[in-house]
Design brief:
Layout (H helix, E strand, L loop, with lengths): L1 H17 L4 H17 L7 H6 L3 H14 L16 H16 L1
């Protein structure tokens, strides 16, 4: 909502004060969108997302990068404790298989 309001204010200011020709404004908006899309290439993924999809190596790299950008002096690389309950899933699959066949 805020960005829409700011966009409207910018349109009104441009058309009232700068120029009645909208082509230059549209070219500026297109260039800004291209710049934003290109800039998104260098934005790192969220560490929470990477942890959620179990990509722990990339998660460590992103956290290290963020700490470096924030100028953290005594940064210690995180150690993840990942505990999968594979045995529970296997027991559930086995129980379901015996129930459906019996």
């Amino acid at each position: 909502m805020v960005s829409e309001g700011l966009c409207q204010v910018l349109w009104v200011f441009y058309l009232a004060v700068i120029s009645k020709n909208t082509f230059y404004f549209i070219y500026f908006a297109i260039a800004l969108n291209i710049l934003t899309c290109t800039g998104c290439y260098w934005v790192p993924e969220s560490p929470r997302y990477l942890y959620g999809i179990n990509d722990l190596e990339k998660c460590k790299k992103v956290l290290t990068y963020i700490a470096k950008m924030n100028r953290v002096q005594d940064y210690k690389e995180p150690e993840f404790q990942v505990d999968f309950e594979i045995t529970t899933e296997l027991h559930f699959e086995a129980d379901r298989g015996t129930r459906s066949s019996g």
